[in-house]
């Protein structure tokens, strides 16, 4: 039965909703709605002022109509009017309408903000919450401007009610996300952290969310939250079930709060303080222990809540990566889940184990579960679970199990979901290349890939196999033999024809001695596929044919006949025609020497990074799989690029046959793929340094320093004595994400010793239309005249952008006024007598000066004697 | 000792909450991120398509664009929470259940019609338990107490 409470009936609304539901057709519904809209319009325009109840009812009807999917272009004013009612039910509907139908009319915004202001100041917790929820739901810039400074005060005030604190904390979080520049930091940080000690766990929950987000941007400021979080977590985890009655859910103590606290702790490295660290370890051990205890309830809610905490604890253990016992225990626990009867748990275990696989402490432990994972690949019915199994096999792959894993992945590929085939192909290609000791295995694997999933073998993959075969003398014969055999299949994939054509064209001579693969047989085999292939493949085959003419004079005449045929010389495709004509001519007029020179064996390819990994990364998206990130970074800002540069240097000293630096010992631990496929971390290409707005910042600290069509960079700085802090705001003006965003500050050598600029790392992704903040901490060590440069790089729509901006950090920012008597002043002034201390420069002013205006200005700034 | 830092997205939060019936009618849509009306409609349709083809052999989690959806079916209604990829699946799965239990208590054996006729009250329940894309209050006792108090107001 629809619950209708007293006094709040709104019978008219219920009747209207019933009418709509009873409409037999879309047309009838529209008719009924239009009738109602007309009715409401007339009521709103009518002479008689509507009472609050009616207004509420009509605004609610309008809202309902909107939620059905019809546009509403009136009613906003009435909704805003409801805010000034002193009745909760009327206010509630007013706020709801405003939150759902956000309007950018500035008059309305002003009125709404006014209503909110009054409710915030009302000291009525119900009204305050309505207001706070509205700000949190709408989160507009205008609201941020109006209330960002008020809300922290509400949050930390002693007499604020608990439920209001909860809402204020999350409201502040919202504003911080959308308008970080307007949310004041500093003075109330300590009190926010202190909320972790509140006795109301709902307040603690909200505060933890707030602190976690703030800590990600400014970890140093919120460092003190770590010990409080550990203490809180410890108390929850060891509490008896009657302690946290209101917050015990199916016999699990405060599961959501526990998860949030564990999440907060993941913003920081393991605590330095030994006592704190051991307390946290105890906590984590307790959580792991509980997983082994018999369950207090058979209900799935109990196990889900308990395991939610467990998985987050494991995530923290993985994040710290410092306690081998915990890591191994986590691995074992996950291993048990791999065979749990619940699909959710098997899925999560596979996912979590993937990250464990890249830790040097647990890599071996993970490998012990290989058979189980392989089995999952074969038997799981949910494709997303199978995908996690593939990811895990990929992550746990190393030299010891590569052959087996690749074989299993190939076998899985035969029946895999089409949507994930390309990814599996890329992964197999990468593994085969990386762990090939014997390149014949590598060639077999790639050819198998083409055979099984040819459509999903992208160009990068088959280019790569060609590169490798060209560069490795020892596998060329084998490659020729194998492709020859593979091409015998009646229906082979076009990619195989491409690879085969190229390899036989280069190395067919290595198998020509055997009569079963004589030159003529090879040519006929290739040509039998010719008419089935697309134009690019045929073009490749034509090139193979001319190479054959060079390699095997005995088939020259046969091939020339083919080239001479009308279907080639008069082929509709220009490229094919050109090749046929030119190759034919070449074969006729060139002497054997010249032909041999022109069609000499391909030289080895220069070593280069694999484009396959780049393609895989693009597919998975940034940050999805930890082992894919090539710039792993901590939230605290240190990047691990140094390892990348080391390996790039290493590979350049290897001989050209070691294209991929695969002969180096595989490194264990975090950078399994990174040191092989490191993307060059070259410094950004020299770009023009933008100085356009630089002079404007001499006398001001805030403003836009750079802007182009894509990006706006704004600054807000504050200086005190020799220290400065600069907030840099990067605004993405487009609707597409910026990826691989990086920004660093560079200084000339001289400047480096005079000015310290420390920048905190930024997210690599800026969403379309979003703004990101970076903080620079500046310390002036001695006087300086140069300026640091902000170097920005990011990817927009595939193109790399490079921007360099001169940062307006000038010496005068560190000036401080001082007071002195005029006598002292002139004494000092006279002391500045040495030639280099006195400078006079006469120049013509740009604009004529008005004496009176100038006099007034000087009078105003009398204190400015430089 | 090198730290294995997992990339933590700054945008770790709920993106939206949807309650839809099997036919695809939306009974509640709560958005915690800016989308314009066309995008919202598209998302609603996509979620419905993705979620209604799944059955008992599937997990309660599904990848969705750059996010993921944690969902559970209760009779004819699908409760879906869209969260970030690194969010805690089970925590949100039980977050849904917690919310459903509150609705059930508040509406005395809640059914789809209750959500239709009292749509404006459902928003109040949501805002008690979720706010700014985060979980706000998890104690059913506290939430129900507050809701009953609000119910008594004029």
TrEMBL record, chain A:
Segments forming domain Clathrin adaptor alpha/beta/gamma-adaptin appendage Ig-like subdomain: 695-808
Signal peptide residue numbers: none
A molecular function (GO) term: clathrin adaptor activity
Region (Disordered): 616-654
Claim: Nucleotide-binding is one of the keywords in the record: no
One GO location term (cellular component): AP-2 adaptor complex
Annotated residues for binding of a 1,2-diacyl-sn-glycero-3-phospho-(1D-myo-inositol-3,4,5-trisphosphate): 11-12, 43, 53, 57-61
Localization terms from the record: Membrane, Coated pit
Keywords: Coated pit, Endocytosis, Membrane, Protein transport, Transport
Biased composition (Polar residues): 634-654
One GO BP annotation of this record: intracellular protein transport
Pfam family name, one: Alpha_adaptinC2
Membrane topology: Peripheral membrane protein
Keyword Transport carried by entry: yes
Role description: Component of the adaptor protein complex 2 (AP-2). Adaptor protein complexes function in protein transport via transport vesicles in different membrane traffic pathways. Adaptor protein complexes are vesicle coat components and appear to be involved in cargo selection and vesicle formation. AP-2 is involved in clathrin-dependent endocytosis in which cargo proteins are incorporated into vesicles surrounded by clathrin (clathrin-coated vesicles, CCVs) which are destined for fusion with the early endosome.
Membership in a protein family: Belongs to the adaptor complexes large subunit family.
SUBUNIT field: Adaptor protein complex 2 (AP-2) is a heterotetramer composed of two large adaptins (alpha-type subunit AP2A1 or AP2A2 and beta-type subunit AP2B1), a medium adaptin (mu-type subunit AP2M1) and a small adaptin (sigma-type subunit AP2S1).
Protein name: AP-2 complex subunit alpha
Organism of derivation: Haplochromis burtoni (Burton's mouthbrooder)
UniProtKB/TrEMBL annotation, chain B:
Major localization class: membrane
UniProt signal peptide: 1-19
Domain of life where this protein originates: Eukaryota
GO biological process: clathrin-dependent endocytosis; habituation; intracellular protein transport; psychomotor behavior
InterPro entries on file: AP_complex_ssu, AP_mu_sigma_su, APS2, Clathrin_sm-chain_CS, Longin-like_dom_sf
Recorded topology in the membrane: Peripheral membrane protein
Keyword annotations of the record: Cell membrane, Coated pit, Endocytosis, Membrane, Protein transport, Signal, Transport
PROSITE patterns: CLAT_ADAPTOR_S
Localization: Cell membrane; Membrane, Coated pit
MF terms in GO: clathrin adaptor activity
GO cellular component: AP-2 adaptor complex
AP complex mu/sigma subunit domain residues: 13-153
Quaternary structure and partners: Adaptor protein complex 2 (AP-2) is a heterotetramer composed of two large adaptins (alpha-type subunit AP2A1 or AP2A2 and beta-type subunit AP2B1), a medium adaptin (mu-type subunit AP2M1) and a small adaptin (sigma-type subunit AP2S1). Interacts with CCDC32; the interaction is direct and mediates association of CCDC32 with adaptor protein complex 2 (AP-2).
Family: Belongs to the adaptor complexes small subunit family.
Protein name: AP complex subunit sigma
